[in-house]
């Protein structure tokens, strides 16, 4: 019977090692009512004075305590997961809000771009109209320059015509004087 108890204690001892680190630890679960023991893994008291039932690896209350401890661990993991999910949701909401704002800003920029393009098209149309007017004004300006030149030439021609007219009048008078005899008229003598 003592051999069975020792074998059960060894099995219990093999199971208590830290499996994550691969380091077996000596279990203090084998105990008697007179020995007070503490778990090296958790620093929890493995003895429970209210325990009345003995088992090969400790008291029945140890297992109840261990289940409670595991329940607390699961609860903490659950709380951590809930906290992480909440944080991720907030982060997602923030990203979604930023994305929505970016989409809205993109739409606003597209509208502004459309307005600028429309204004550019209007400006191009107005510039084309102004060019036509400038070409007409340029034509008017060239006509005005030609008209001034004609007026200048006309005044020159008027001066030339006047000079020619004077020369012709002067020439006609001098031409009549050349045809007339230069001797005195005998009219007065014949009458006498």
Automatic annotation (TrEMBL):
According to the lineage, what is the superkingdom? Answer: Eukaryota
Q: Where is the composition biased (Polar residues)?
A: 1-11, 24-39
Positions of the region Disordered? Answer: 1-39, 169-192
List all Basic and acidic residues biased stretches.
175-192
Protein name, entry field: Uncharacterized protein
């Amino acid at each position: 019977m003592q051999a069975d108890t020792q074998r059960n204690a060894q099995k219990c001892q093999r199971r208590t090692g830290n499996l994550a680190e691969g380091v077996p630890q000596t279990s203090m679960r084998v105990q008697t009512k007179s020995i007070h023991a503490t778990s090296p893994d958790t620093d929890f008291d493995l003895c429970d004075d209210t325990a009345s039932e003995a088992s090969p690896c400790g008291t029945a209350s140890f297992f109840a305590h261990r289940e409670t401890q595991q329940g607390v661990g699961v609860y903490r993991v659950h709380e951590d997961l809930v906290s992480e999910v909440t944080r991720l949701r907030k982060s997602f909401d923030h990203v979604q809000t930023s994305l929505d704002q970016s989409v809205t800003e993109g739409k606003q920029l597209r509208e502004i771009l459309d307005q600028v393009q429309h204004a550019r098209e209007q400006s191009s149309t107005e510039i084309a109209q102004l060019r036509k007017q400038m070409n007409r004004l340029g034509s008017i300006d060239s006509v005005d320059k030609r008209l001034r030149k004609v007026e200048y030439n006309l005044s020159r021609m008027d001066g030339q015509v006047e000079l020619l007219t004077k020369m012709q009048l002067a020439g006609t008078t001098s031409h009549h004087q050349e045809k007339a005899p230069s001797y005195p008229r005998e009219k007065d003598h014949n009458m006498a």
